[in-house]
Amino acid sequence: MGAATLGATLSCALPLGPGDRIQLGHGSGGKLSAALLKHCFLPHLGNPTLAQLGDGAVVSVEAGEIVVSTDSFVVSPLVFPGGDIGSLAVHGSLNDLAMMGAEPRWLTAGFIIEEGLLLAELTRIVQSMGDAARAAGVPVITGDTKVVERGKGDGLFINTTGIGVRYSRARPAPDRARPGDAVLVSGPIGRHGMAIMAARGSLGFEGALESDSACLWPMVRGLVDLLGEELHVLRDPTRGGVASALNEIAAASGVGVVLQDGLLPIPEAVNAACEMLGLDPLYVANEGMFVAFCPHALAAEALRTLRAHPLGEQAAVVGRVVADHPGFVVLETALGTQRVVDLLPGDQLPRIC
Amino acid sequence: MGAATLGATLSCALPLGPGDRIQLGHGSGGKLSAALLKHCFLPHLGNPTLAQLGDGAVVSVEAGEIVVSTDSFVVSPLVFPGGDIGSLAVHGSLNDLAMMGAEPRWLTAGFIIEEGLLLAELTRIVQSMGDAARAAGVPVITGDTKVVERGKGDGLFINTTGIGVRYSRARPAPDRARPGDAVLVSGPIGRHGMAIMAARGSLGFEGALESDSACLWPMVRGLVDLLGEELHVLRDPTRGGVASALNEIAAASGVGVVLQDGLLPIPEAVNAACEMLGLDPLYVANEGMFVAFCPHALAAEALRTLRAHPLGEQAAVVGRVVADHPGFVVLETALGTQRVVDLLPGDQLPRIC
Fold first, then answer.
1. Residue B174 domain-assigned (yes or no)
2. Do A345 and B247 touch (CB under 8 A)?
3. How many whole angstroms separate alpha carbon B318 and alpha carbon B262?
4. Each residue of B122-138: pLDDT tens digit?
5. Do B96 and A56 lie within an 8 Å CB cutoff?
6. In this complex, which of A29, A69, A76 lies closest to B240 when CB atoms are compared?
7. Which of A26, A61, A173 sits opposite B54 (nearest CB)?
8. Which terminus of chain A has fewer Cβ atoms in its 10 Å neighbourhood, N or C?
């Protein structure tokens, strides 16, 4: 009869009206929490494991190595061209696993909701999260919801933890770059960050700017299949952009990186928006492309593999690894001049992910 | 030289002065982020896996079942008698694993920090988190830090995801309560919630109220060793307290639960504080005790096992499972009167964990 009572309560409290908002009680672990779970979360994230609603989830693993990655998402605004905080939270953690050469298997989700958030907005974001997880074939197996008072949060923060398994012998790592490696990018640079800036109204236009937020694993898997252990480095250049990612790799591997300006696939709209704001596209966050390092002799075939994937049509070899200037990334222009691409001290664009 | 440059920057930016505060740039993924990681997080949370600082962490598992649990912590205030958000975030996720009969192995940590938080306060909390993790023997293997603008957060939110492995054949679950089971509690009721209320100044005194926040696994392991599959249900009654936990179990198992008022170990300070605020201790959150269900014939031995542990000195058999009134929890007084202990609609005490 407890279950019956709960059911009756649920059907009273919901379905939701268009103006219903999150109350503190939705985070209580009581009847309102149960209603939120039943009407907002389970319909979109539901799967047999999540539906058990225990203190956690149980999944079977083979013996071997598992890979774990966690990320909190605080992007503002919550919805932007090309995605929202829900799809971004899925792609972000899955991509971190992919960058370690791991096949993503499971996701957890923790929601910190500000009192007053429209239930309809939350539901749309959860639906988008569920769509992204389903498209990637990775279920959300357990989750948690907390509510904070109005003014103590900012609509919605989402933490996701991704768990994956090693896919093959590939062991890409930031310290495995070697002189002679080619530096590849899998797609256009700077789209996510500039789409967020456009959505914030910072540009006075949105236009052609759309986030690249996407699950990278299918494209990465192709590269892993091709290159195996010769895939030296993989990195998704999110916060801090391509420049920061390459600086970290150069430092970790004790090598120099030379980028060739003319080869960088930077969309015209990103260039224009960056010029308006005085930003450098190399420091702008990406959420659907990666940099890869492999021996130069394998670069052409790697490029063909990337370009065969819809997300990789603009993949390019953009530079090379050298023994000179270890720890430094240098940009070479068509005129042969060079400038150092340094690590930024702080944020160019806060709350981009 | 990138590494050298980074090192130089770190020693410039830090060690921290007593008045230093978190800036947005600490969440950028740039030099300030690196400095924060090096001077605040790694000294206290560091271990060989975390120190690799990849996009995620790699750990080895045996073939079998892993258990995963995630929780976001938004407790206010950040520090309270008996703990803080850091130790609570460790205990909370580890206890969720323990409640599923899993041995905790690894933790992840995601920090959402409000601009302006004192670095010294953050560091104290991270240290407390590290101490709790070390005491439990469970390393934090990967993490993430985000910073939000002043007024868009509330000091600090922490998400932890715990990963454990099944410890034995024990399969405690909320739907396995059976008529004839005894209901045990492992320790005193209501301490965490009332310690938080005291820390908020709601009582006008703090006095004897201290949170029970603790890692339950060592005590649970003893019970699992003793009872095996006869350990039917385990639950840590956090948000919503003992009443909500028992209601969920009664509903999931389709049984009735009868509690005996006189047997409940409720500290005098908790009773007094609850009376002042018009609260019922049965609905107050706990973070260092659990309820367990096992066949009545095994209850005495189970009780001895619990009491042999320092956290279990006040363990007690507090009730029984009946076939009557399925889904309902009933409290029986010494006079023989009964009242229904229902599920609350919303929060008694928001942001208790």
1. no
2. no
3. 8
4. 999 999 999 999 999 99
5. yes
6. A29
7. A173
8. N
